Amino acid sequence: MLQLQPKWAKTIDSNDLTFYENLYERLQDQTLKSKASISSPRSFSFTPLVKAFNHEEKLLIICFVTNMSDEPLDLIDVPITFYAEEHSLQTDVTIDQLNLDAGNTTLWTLIFENHPYEIKKQPSFLFE
Hints:
This protein is of the alpha+beta class. The protein has one domain (6-114). Helices cover 16% and strands 45% of the residues. The chain is built from 2 helices and 7 strands, in the order H-H-E-E-E-E-E-E-E. The chain has helices spanning 6-11, 14-28, and strands at residues 37-39, 44-53, 59-67, 73-84, 87-100, 105-112, 124-125. It is globular.
C-alpha cells in the first residue's frame, strides 16, 4: 500500500499524486525499472524516481521507500548510499515520526548537499 507521510499528503499536487500512484502500480507489478539505486543496511528498499535540484543547488532524489520486513520500522539516522551515473553519494536519512507498516511504501525526498552533478532547472526521471 502507498502510505503518504503527512508532509507529502499536505503538499502534493493531485496531478503529481496520480503520477506517483501510477509509478507505484508499476512498482507492484515489477515493471518499474530504476536507472539508479540506493543501498541501506536496514530492511528498507529505496526506489529512486526523480532527480532534481532545489534553490540552494542541493540534489533532491524523490524515491519510494518500502518496508521489506515483517514488522513496522522507523527510519532514524539510517545511512544510505545513492548510486547513479558512475557516482556514489552518502547521507543519513531520518523521516520523523515514520512508522511504516510491513510491506508498505511511502514517498520521500532525499537531500544531498554535496554532489558532482551539473545543476539543471528541469527534473530528470530515474526510471524506464
